[in-house]
TrEMBL record, chain A:
The keyword Magnesium does not apply. This is Ribosome production factor 2 homolog. GO terms for cellular component: nucleolus. The keyword Hydrolase does not apply. Residues 283-300 have a biased composition (Basic and acidic residues). InterPro entries: Brix, Rpf2. One of its GO terms (biological process) is maturation of LSU-rRNA from tricistronic rRNA transcript (SSU-rRNA, 5.8S rRNA, LSU-rRNA). The lineage of its organism: Eukaryota, Metazoa, Echinodermata, Eleutherozoa, Echinozoa. Keywords: Nucleus. It comes from the Eukaryota. It comes from Strongylocentrotus purpuratus (Purple sea urchin).
Automatic annotation (TrEMBL), chain B:
One of its GO terms (cellular component) is preribosome, large subunit precursor. The keyword Nucleus applies. GO terms for biological process: endonucleolytic cleavage in ITS1 to separate SSU-rRNA from 5.8S rRNA and LSU-rRNA from tricistronic rRNA transcript (SSU-rRNA, 5.8S rRNA, LSU-rRNA); ribosomal large subunit biogenesis. Residues 288-335 are annotated as: Disordered. It is found in: Nucleus. This is Ribosome biogenesis regulatory protein. Residues 289-306 have a biased composition (Basic and acidic residues). The keyword Nucleus applies. Belongs to the RRS1 family. Signal peptide: none annotated.
Length: 330, 335
């Protein structure tokens, strides 16, 4: 990024570079914000959400009097300040009891926000079981027709995936799959449950999965929403050109996913083909003398071509070997 | 024992063994979408509401279990790698489209030098960071601290033969360095301005070791024109040179050029002359329209409040009354 004011020292420069837009992005950090007034439930819920996202989350300790649906400026400022693009805002009022707002930012401007009412909240501590290790990548389950048919539910699903998926990793340890977060849409409610995985023998390589509930468990009711326009969302989810896989030429796949490749070969010189050795076809002394000189010339002229051929097919190496033998004989 | 009996026994044992374990297969009407990169499973099947009403918790956990089982079945099919003692699987790329945190980074715009170098085909040469110092007989950095040109290094400087002996050579060297740095900074800013398509400020005069005649003339001109009145009241120097090529120059179109361009130019002038009405400024018109709409909407809202809720009307009423009173008072004074 081009800055008019240059950073004063290397430490600051590094810190600024860390915040710059990147081709492959870092894991999104989330802010847990308490509103002007929060109920006990909401405070507990925010801390538990913070625990679920832990290395990539920031819990704001003080109250922040703001109304995300009326004025986003202070939210955007906080996002800028903490370099966080996800937030969960909790508040409690008479009109909207136990209120939780999930939202995300694009370039530190609000992209979408969904306000949810929290019901039947049960804390982690209410379940007397062993918990998941902090920082494990959770498995996410979404059940219910609504997540596929309703527009708001679709957006909510996308937001929840973004919020809870954790870091993008290229490999996972099979034994370490512990945490399952399940979201079920029924009766105009979204039921969030969290489970711990127990792997049992099944008689085959894949284990049998059993789940025990560990909390937090809560029911969510959709209240207000502020969703991004289609255009903005499209702009935000643009995939960089540099990361797109380059199309390989002359390779195609058929219905059965077998690969077909087209290989361009030079025309084979049949005069040099090694055929069965018969005495009658053996060259006379004079012929071989001529052939020697001719052969040398052709070899020089075609050396480049031969190299390419040997790369393409192993069958051609035999030819080379036989030539080498010839040379040794001579 | 017969061999067939042994085979039977082994098979029976295996079957019993399998019966002991619960199955890992899950039946679903609609296929569950699985995104392995995000460890995500989306089950679009409708819920069994009867079962749900009977026992909520158990039913929810059974649904979650089934979905997890399906995800794990896929996960266990992936190729396995052993890292130290752990068995890991390589996850594919996530397929769910999620928005980015920040925009896709753009390439840094090329500087003036980079553009020129590309045009001329000048390639960057890699220079080693360290150079051999004959005096110290060791490798020292090429630039910066403890390098050959480090200002702190010299404790003694030679006074050149033709120089003023009272001149401080140290401060002279330091100043020269400062000026080089300043020039570089100016060029950086000019590059930024150029990249942002802003007006690129002129450099004026850069400090030079031996300014030639034209440079001195230019310096005189610039210093005279750097007053608040742009040099209007400056006295003329004796034998002040007349400087050419300063200020704007008229540019003429080439005599032999495209006919189309000339035609368009003339046509534009004629169009402007023959137009009866003045040209419409679209942005201005649009802005006016928007403003009018907003005002009317605000007025409507105000009226609506007056008629509707008590709170709004109570607040609004004294305001208007107050204004009237002041008006009336003014009139009263006049009389």
């Amino acid at each position: 990024m081009q800055r008019i004011v240059k950073p004063k020292n290397q430490r600051v420069k590094r810190a600024l570079e860390k915040r710059d837009p990147k081709l492959v992005e870092n894991t999104k950090t989330s802010l847990m914000i308490r509103g002007g007034h929060t109920s006990e439930k909401i405070t507990a819920l925010l801390t538990e959400l913070h625990m679920l996202r832990k290395p990539h989350s920031q819990m704001l300790k003080r109250k922040n009097i703001m109304r995300p649906f009326e004025d986003q400026t202070s939210l955007e400022f906080m996002s800028q300040k903490n370099d966080a693009s996800l937030f969960a805002f909790g508040s409690h009022s008479k009109k909207r009891p136990h209120n939780l707002v999930f939202g995300r930012m694009f370039e530190h401007h609000t992209l979408d926000m969904i306000e949810l009412g929290v019901e039947n909240f049960k804390s982690m501590h209410a379940f007397k079981t062993s918990k998941c290790t902090s920082g494990t990548k959770p498995c996410l389950m979404f059940t219910g027709e609504l997540f596929d048919s309703d527009h708001i539910h679709k957006k909510l699903k996308n937001l929840l995936i973004d919020f809870f998926r954790g870091p993008v990793v290229d490999a996972v340890r099979l034994g370490g799959m512990e945490c399952v977060l399940s979201f079920t849409a029924v009766d105009e409610k979204i039921l969030m449950r969290s489970y711990k995985v127990i792997l049992k023998k099944s008689g085959s390589r894949t284990p049998r999965v059993e789940l025990t509930e560990i909390g937090p468990s809560l029911d969510l009711v959709v209240r207000r929403t502020r969703l991004a326009t289609q255009d903005l969302f499209k702009r935000a989810s643009k995939k960089p050109k540099a990361l797109k896989a380059k199309k390989k030429k002359n390779i195609s796949h058929d219905v059965f996913k077998t690969m077909h490749g087209r290989v361009h070969m030079e025309k084979q010189d049949l005069a040099k083909l090694q055929i069965r050795k018969v005495k009658a076809l053996k060259k006379t002394k004079e012929e071989t003398k001529d052939g020697k000189t001719e052969g040398g010339k052709t070899e020089d002229g075609q050396s480049g071509v031969k190299k390419r051929r040997s790369l393409r097919s192993k069958g051609q190496t035999q030819d080379g070997q036989s030539q080498a033998k010839k040379k040794r004989k001579e | 024992m017969d061999t067939s009996e042994i085979v039977d026994k082994v098979l029976r044992n295996a079957a019993e063994e399998e019966k002991k374990y619960k199955s890992i297969e899950v039946q679903r009407d609609v296929e569950v979408e699985i995104d392995l990169g995000n460890l995500l499973a989306c089950d679009p099947n409708a819920l069994d509401l009867k079962k749900y009403r009977v026992n909520k918790g158990d039913y929810l956990s059974s649904i979650a279990r089934d979905a997890t089982q399906l995800l794990f079945n896929q996960l266990w099919k992936l190729p396995v790698h052993r890292v130290e003692d752990a068995i890991t699987v390589k996850l594919p790329e996530p397929t769910t489209v999620l928005p980015r945190e920040k925009r896709v980074p753009k390439d840094r715009p090329a500087t003036k030098w980079e553009k020129y170098a590309k045009q001329k085909g000048i390639m960057n040469k890699k220079k080693s960071t360290k150079v051999w110092s004959e005096e110290e007989e060791k490798w020292i950095p090429r630039f910066g601290y403890k390098s050959k040109n480090d200002l702190k290094k010299d404790w003694l400087l030679e006074v050149p033969a033709n120089a003023d002996p009272m001149e401080d050579q140290f401060s002279k060297k330091k100043k020269a360095k400062q000026e080089r740095v300043a020039k570089n900074e100016l060029q950086r800013l000019r590059n930024i301005a150029r990249a942002k398509k802003r007006k690129v400020p002129g450099v004026g005069l850069t400090p030079t070791e031996k300014p030639d005649k034209t440079m001195v003339n230019k310096a005189i001109h610039l210093s005279k024109h750097s007053t608040a009145s742009i040099g209007k009241f400056e006295n003329k120097l004796p034998k002040e040179p007349l400087i050419k090529n300063l200020g704007k120059r008229r540019k003429f179109e080439p005599v032999m050029g495209s006919l189309k361009k000339e035609q368009d130019l003339q046509k534009n002038i004629l169009d402007g002359l023959s137009r009866n009405r003045p040209e419409m400024n679209v942005t201005k018109a649009v802005n006016r329209q928007i403003r009018e709409e907003q005002q009317s909407a605000a007025a409507e809202k105000r009226e609506g409040r007056k008629g509707g809720k008590g709170k709004g009307s109570r607040k609004a009423a004294p305001k208007t009354a107050g204004r009237k009173r002041t008006k009336g008072g003014a009139r009263g004074k006049k009389r």
